[in-house]
């Protein structure tokens, strides 16, 4: 399955109700898109859920063809990955999937914001148009990545997470505005 079709298949499955939208499944797809392969134990450590819950949702995603088993590196681990029969150079399709997941997560947040604890009911969404050279665009992207990298150890090590912390989506899109 080509990755550009993967987003369409995901939308169709969710729209028809065959596989309802679920925060854990969305997070798992995001981790797979980011890291290549993932076991339920690794997912549990990064997301803060039980490995059983992650395993269940990974199997559900596989049942609907959104992910597949990856070759095991040892006898016990059961790694998963996005389907591999897509061209490696199809970065645009991967980007489409990632953007779709980001947009879906943000719409879910907007619809259910009132259910969050009072001190979490705001978000820090913003945008700006700035004039950059291609080199400056790359430098800004690198600076954002470096800033966020300070917090990445918390994904793998729940003990490193401060009390009261929660998973927060950090989405940055830097692109040139084209003439209409």
From TrEMBL:
InterPro entries membership: ArsR-like_HTH, WH-like_DNA-bd_sf, WH_DNA-bd_sf
Stored Gene3D superfamilies: Winged helix-like DNA-binding domain superfamily/Winged helix DNA-binding domain
CDD domains membership: HTH_ARSR (cd00090)
One Pfam family of this chain: HTH_20
Stated name of the protein: Helix-turn-helix domain-containing protein
Higher taxonomy: Bacteria, Bacillati, Actinomycetota, Actinomycetes, Kitasatosporales
């Amino acid at each position: 399955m080509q990755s550009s079709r993967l987003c369409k298949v995901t939308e169709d499955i969710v729209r028809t109700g065959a596989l309802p939208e679920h925060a854990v499944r969305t997070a798992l797809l995001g981790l797979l898109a980011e890291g290549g392969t993932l076991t339920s134990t690794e997912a549990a450590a990064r997301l803060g859920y039980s490995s059983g819950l992650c395993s269940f949702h990974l199997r559900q995603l596989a049942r609907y063809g959104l992910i597949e088993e990856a070759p095991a590196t040892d006898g016990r681990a059961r790694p998963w990955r996005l389907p591999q029969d897509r061209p490696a150079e199809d970065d645009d399709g991967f980007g489409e999937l990632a953007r779709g997941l980001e947009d879906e997560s943000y719409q879910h947040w907007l619809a259910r914001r009132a259910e969050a604890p009072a001190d979490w009911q705001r978000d820090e969404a913003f945008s700006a148009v700035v004039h950059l050279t291609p080199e400056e665009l790359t430098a800004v992207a690198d600076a954002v990545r470096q800033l966020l990298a300070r917090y990445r150890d918390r994904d793998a090590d729940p003990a490193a997470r401060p009390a009261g912390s929660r998973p927060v989506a950090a989405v940055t899109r830097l692109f040139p505005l084209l003439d209409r």
